[in-house]
């Protein structure tokens, strides 16, 4: 990728005439604008003005009201989109168009509290000061339907045809021809964007698939997931299909989760693995695991951001229900894998696919920092299945938007790690999301028209 001083030459050599600026707001919506190539090259340092309404409008397009926005918010004032030149790529399908991922700052260049990409970078830097580097391999789930998005809209996102048929058998190859055609186009697009992938497979629900991206540092991972979701939507549009990342989707079928596999290195070696420790889990891994567990109830609000996200929490269907960990235990919230140093990691199985990926990663790193700084030790490993446990056997994850917000409001250490201004703004936005659902026609008992129209194309 070009350095800032080389952008003008990069643009000229590739005959780029316009660039798409991309940035992710608190709700995970990818926003931006298009600028002339010459303007991109000349304004990298200062960035581009952008109205702060991007933080005041909800996923339905309504103005969000009712809480203190904080001193960083203006009265429909200008903020800035500041491009990261390391993310500059050509669009593989539209010659002459480039795209670049941006951070949100104020007019003086200070990171905004609601810029979660900037928050993630700050946490990466804090860990680097301690000598640690983090690698993340994301697993992104989604649902694909045979109908084009125009038909899906006209049908109110109901009675859609899952691509590949109605079977619920995970990994079934015989259902996958149509999905294979679709996913072949997706992975070619990802490769053209410089996004590495390792595998994809059919998942449990009809029309559901998962793609695993290659491990990378947290910021690169966040950018890759953001672009991968855009690529999936664009390929679906081009092929006359529709795709969604809703957590509980169409006709009550399970929607999308997003597992995050975290490993930590120090001095070029895996810092989670210790040959002589119990279970090969190093002191760092124990601290990190303990910190993530301690902050998990509060992090739930950040990992499962809307009413629909909590509909995914159904016993025995895959998503975790308890604040638990276990070695190679996929029913627990945090799964450790410590067979050998090449694969030592913590798999975070809580996030839903509709989360803001930068915020989800930030919460995982913040949990690790809490565990390190407070020298925490994890509770005993859960042995056996973490679903269908009797009352009191293990702490339960918050199972609603309101309960998760309350847990976050009560978590002082998590707020210290990610910033009280970040937490305050997020909690205000979740209050609004809850109010909008209950005053906008939401149905507490089932996936309803309100959710489908609000999240199908934006989650």
Q: How does this model look, in words?
A:
By secondary structure, the protein is an alpha+beta fold. It has 13 helices and 15 strands. The protein folds into 2 domains: 4-114, Ubiquitin-like (UB roll); 125-455, Glutamine synthetase/guanido kinase, catalytic domain (Creatine Kinase, Chain A, domain 2). The strands form 2 sheets. Strands 7, 8, 9, 10, 11, 12, 13, 14 and 15 form a 9-stranded mixed beta sheet that branches. Helix 9 (357-373) crosses helix 11 (412-418), helix 10 packs antiparallel against helix 12 and helix 11 (412-418) packs across helix 12. The mean pLDDT is 93.
Explain briefly what this protein structure is.
The protein is an alpha+beta fold and 459 residues long. Helices cover 34% and strands 19% of the residues.
Pick out its properties:
single chain, 6-stranded mixed sheet, 13 helices, Creatine Kinase, Chain A, domain 2, 9-stranded mixed sheet, Ubiquitin-like (UB roll)
Number of strands: 15
Low-confidence spans? none
Mean pLDDT: 93
Overall tally of structural domains: 2
CATH architecture name of the largest domain: 2-Layer Sandwich
Q: In sequence order, what are the helices and strands, one letter per element?
A: HEEHEEEEHEHHEEHEEEHHEEEHHHHH
Instruction: Give the helix tally.
Output: 13
CATH superfamily of the largest domain: Glutamine synthetase/guanido kinase, catalytic domain
**What percent of the residues sit in helical stretches (DSSP H or I)?**
25-40%
CATH class of the largest domain: Alpha Beta
Describe the largest sheet: 9 strands, mixed
């Amino acid at each position: 990728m070009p350095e800032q001083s080389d952008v003008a030459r990069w643009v000229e050599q590739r005959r780029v005439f316009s660039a798409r600026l991309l940035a992710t707001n608190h709700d995970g919506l990818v926003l931006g604008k298009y600028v002339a190539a010459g303007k991109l090259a000349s304004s990298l340092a200062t960035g581009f003005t952008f109205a702060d309404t991007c933080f005041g409008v909800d996923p339905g397009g309504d103005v969000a009201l009712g809480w203190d926005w904080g001193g960083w918010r203006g009265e429909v004032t200008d903020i800035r989109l500041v491009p990261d030149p390391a993310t500059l790529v050509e669009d593989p399908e539209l010659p002459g168009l480039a795209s670049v991922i941006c951070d949100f700052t104020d007019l003086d260049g200070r990171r905004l509290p609601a810029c979660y990409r900037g928050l993630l970078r700050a946490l990466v830097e804090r860990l680097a000061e301690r000598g640690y580097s983090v690698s993340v391999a994301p697993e992104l789930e989604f649902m694909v339907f045979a109908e084009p998005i125009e038909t899906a809209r006209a049908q109110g996102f109901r009675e859609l045809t899952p691509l590949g048929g109605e079977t619920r058998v995970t990994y079934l190859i015989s259902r996958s021809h149509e999905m294979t055609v679709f996913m072949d186009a997706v992975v070619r697009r990802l490769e053209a964007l410089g996004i590495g992938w390792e595998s994809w497979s059919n998942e449990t629900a009809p029309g559901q698939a998962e793609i695993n991206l290659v491990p990378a540092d947290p910021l690169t991972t966040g950018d890759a997931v953001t672009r991968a979701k855009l690529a999936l939507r664009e390929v679906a549009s081009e092929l006359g299909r529709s795709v969604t990342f809703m957590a509980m989707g169409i006709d009550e079928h399970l929607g999308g989760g997003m597992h995050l596999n975290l490993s930590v290195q120090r001095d070029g070696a895996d810092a989670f693995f210790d040959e002589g420790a119990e279970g090969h889990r190093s002191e760092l891994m124990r601290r990190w695991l303990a910190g993530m567990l301690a902050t998990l109830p509060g992090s739930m609000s950040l990992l499962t951001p809307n009413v629909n996200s909590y509909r995914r929490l159904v016993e025995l269907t895959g998503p975790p229900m308890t604040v638990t960990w276990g070695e190679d235990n996929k029913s627990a919230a945090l799964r450790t894998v410590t067979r050998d140093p090449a694969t030592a990691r913590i798999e975070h199985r809580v996030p839903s696919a509709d989360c803001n990926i930068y915020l989800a990663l930030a919460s995982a790193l913040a949990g690790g920092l809490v565990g390190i700084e407070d020298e925490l030790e994890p509770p005993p490993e859960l042995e056996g299945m973490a679903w269908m446990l009797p009352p009191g056997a293990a702490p339960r994850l918050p199972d609603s938007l309101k309960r998760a917000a309350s847990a976050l409001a009560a978590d002082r250490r998590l707020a210290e790690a990610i910033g009280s201004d970040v937490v305050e703004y997020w909690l205000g936005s979740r209050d609004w999301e809850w109010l909008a659902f209950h005053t906008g026609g939401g149905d507490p008992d089932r996936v309803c028209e309100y959710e489908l129209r609000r999240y199908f194309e934006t989650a």
